[in-house]
Amino acid sequence: MTVPAYGDAYLVANGIHIYLSDLKKELKEGDKVYLTLKTELGLPVEVEATVKK
Question: How confident is the model at residue 29, as a pLDDT?
């Protein structure tokens, strides 16, 4: 997915989404998860996401 500088991307269940595997604990709806995504240049971007169904 490409997001222009200062642009937005919305991740939704029936569209673009991130699949998490090999989790250390079960996630429940409403839980917060903290992810580090990497840009095309390898720079880390820290995000907080709420688990939804």
Answer: 95
